[in-house]
Amino acid sequence: MKQWSKSIYARTIFILTVVLVVAGILIANLFDLQVVKYDYYLGKVLDNLIQENVIKAERGAIYDRNMQALAMNITTYRIFVSPADIKEEDRDTVAKGLSDILQVDYEDIYKKLLKVTRKDETIKKDVDKDTADEVRRFIDKNNFVGQIYLEAGSKRYYPYENSAAQVIGYLGTDGGLFGLELQYNEQLTGTDGKYITARNAKNQSMPSKYDSKIDPKNGYGLVTTLDMNIQAILENYLEQTYKENLAGNNVCGIVMDVETGAIYAMATNWGFDLNSPFTLTDEYADELKFSGLSAGTEEYNELKWSLIYSMWRNKCVSETYEPGSVFKIITLASAIDAGIVNTATGFRCSGSLLVSGEKIKCWKTTGGLTVAGTHISCHKKTGHGENSFSYLLQQSCNPAMMQAAALVGKDTFWKYFEEFGYTGKTGIDLPGEASGINHKLSNFNAVELATSSFGQTFKTTPIQQITAVCAVANGGYMVTPHVVESLLDDQGNVVVSYADKTAKRQIISEEVGKELAEILAEGVISGVAKNAYVAGYNVAAKTGTSEKRDEEDKTLRVGSTVAFAPADDPKIAVLIIVDEP
After folding, report:
1. What is residue 388's predicted lDDT score, i.e. its pLDDT?
2. 470, CA 20 to 30 Å: which among 125, 136, 151, 392?
3. Which residues on neighbouring strands pair with residue 251, listed in sequence order?
4. Rounded to an integer, what distance in angstroms lies between the CA atom of residue 579 and that of residue 78?
5. How far apart are CA 507 and CA 504, in angstroms?
């Protein structure tokens, strides 16, 4: 009996121990699930119960300096149908009605209506309000509620269509593609919000403390420095210039505030509709049409996309050219500021100058006239003769610039070349800014110094060139060109201001700047820049012509003019470039 009792007792202890161990494991697991990992498993449950719906943030608008909208959002509609809810006998009426209103092929609509298991088949996107109202009237008239739907959405719209197109840029499906839409994409985009709702197994709403709404944060508006009145004038004259000069590689122009670097206008001679940015302009379409390539082939598509990107490219920022004689302003400024010469210093031009065995000519190397195709020489290659440095600049004399640069020396010349921004980018707030193409200082010898003095054998961008000239016009201060003035919130408050008028550095003295302005203004009256004369305005200007030495056709040239006014108190600078007139 005692033996049996001991056996029972041992078994009971064993069983109790097992039960306690199992219970301990269960309790530990429950504690782990309900306490330690509570948040984790709650999240898992909520993932199955919670449904999120995105609330799209509004993209910020883009304005000119006068608050004229350049890019904005307009309400459009997606028209879609629920084939599962449309009766067989109503399909023809639906297809015909929507085809007439939306200008969509009847057969395409009818095929979608046959997908009877579908609840959402898009008929047309980006439908305007007037057309959407017609669809609503069609639904009401035929009692097609629950069968035809309209969904409101937003579409980017450009009121000025093709004006300042390369500067403003375009909004693609994944953000800005070029221009300001790309450069300021993050600021314009904003942050989406969302509705969070609880759903049961039947996808029905149910009361829950987890229902909530996170409001979207709309993108900032951009206030640009552009003035669309000035922009329109610039574009009008660029188009006229292009047609009159038959420019083989187009024309471009910039209007800039000399004191702040604000860009008032920037354009090329061609515009394209930002509301249809993949449609080639007539010139580009003709190039594709007469390419001899078959539509749809790989080569055809490659050429088409190449032309689209060329059409989008901002020539003022993304292309380089040899500036030619407009650079002589910089040579004169450097030589006078360095104290090497003054405006009265005399130089002699005999029509050419021998530099390290290289004969480099002045543009005035021969006289005479052409009659019926025959050139009649009146005098020999006399050049400009002997005169003051200021007069020779006004006459755009190459040998005078070469002699002045030789006196300055390559090291000092290069120092000013760097200070005026030719060896770096301007930092303008537009994408795709190109870098200039320059000599290396180690290879910058006598010939390179001579040719650089009159703007040849190196390349710059139009925005670099006008920025350098602005530094002369404003008394020697290097500013940063910019297109955006400020960012605005939804209430129109300025949240970020880019109107920093602090100059990066002073290159020449204000006295030298004023002296140069007077010389350039006199050049408009009696020099080679007479075409820059405007009655009633005191204009300082310099013209330039450069060879396109890297082209097979050695007759190709680039013509340009840079000017600022008023010459006695400069405010505005303008640069016009005619590429291959």
Report:
1. 84
2. 392
3. 578
4. 45
5. 10
- The percentage of the chain sitting over the pLDDT mark of 70, rounded to a whole number, equals 90
Contact 384, 353 (CB under 8 A): no
Give the integer Cα–Cα distance in Å for 447 and 77: 66
- Give the type of residue at 409: G
Q: Which two tokens stand for residue 94?
A: 């639906």
Q: Give the DSSP H or E segment for 495.
A: strand 494-497
The helix (H) or strand (E) run that includes residue 371 is strand 369-371
The answer to whether the beta carbons of residues 449 and 416 sit under 8 Å apart is no
* Host H or E run for residue 311: helix 298-312
Q: Would you state the pLDDT for residue 331?
A: 95
Longest dimension (CA), the chain: 150
**CA pseudo-torsion sign 57, 63, 68, 71:** negative
How does strand 50-55 pair with strand 193-198?
antiparallel
Report CA-CA distances (Å) from 4 to 1, 17, 18, 497: 5, 20, 21, 95
Taking CB atoms within 8 Å and a gap of at least 24, the contacts of 83-86 are: 83/112, 83/113, 83/114, 83/115, 83/116, 83/117, 83/118, 83/119, 83/121, 84/116, 84/117, 84/118, 84/119, 85/119, 85/146, 85/147, 86/113, 86/144, 86/147
Collapsed DSSP state (helix, strand, coil) of residue 26 = helix
Q: What is the pLDDT of residue 351?
A: 80
For the stretch 465-496, pLDDT in tens is 999 999 999 999 999 999 999 999 999 999 99
pTM, 2 dp: 0.82
Nearest-5° Cα angle at 87, 83 to 93: 90
Q: Which two tokens stand for residue 501?
A: 């008028």
